[in-house]
Amino acid sequence: MKDREKKYLRKTAPTESAKMVETIYGCKWSLTVYQLLADGINRPGEMVRSIEGLTTKVLNQCLRKNTEFGILERISYNEVPPRVEYKVTDFGAKFMKVLDELEKLQDEIENKI
């Protein structure tokens, strides 16, 4: 009688999601932008006025990265003057839950030390 051996494939790291997490944490303003959106502040001008030290250029880079990842959605209104707002996508809400869990894990690590 032959022993049945289960063969496992080599497990690899999730490269795309890891790159997303690294990029978002690498941008020091992304987490603050998420907090602003949660508080109902969704227009770039209002975001810049709400955060000391944040420039329009840096905010636009941050918003662009988040939009490219599908975390945020850019909504343009056909008005004069032009109006743009951002909102969290369904995927972005899931991603933010992952970030919240990472933060809890970090707190747990810090409390052990």
TrEMBL record:
What Gene3D superfamilies does the record point to?
Answer: Winged helix-like DNA-binding domain superfamily/Winged helix DNA-binding domain
What is the protein's given name? HxlR family transcriptional regulator
Q: Which residues form the HTH hxlR-type domain?
A: 13-113
Keywords from the UniProt entry: DNA-binding, Transcription, Transcription regulation
Stretches assigned to coiled coil: none
Q: Spell out the molecular function terms from Gene Ontology.
A: DNA binding
Query: Which InterPro entries has this protein been placed in?
Result: HTH_HxlR, WH-like_DNA-bd_sf, WH_DNA-bd_sf
Q: Does the keyword rRNA processing apply?
A: no
One Pfam family hit: HxlR
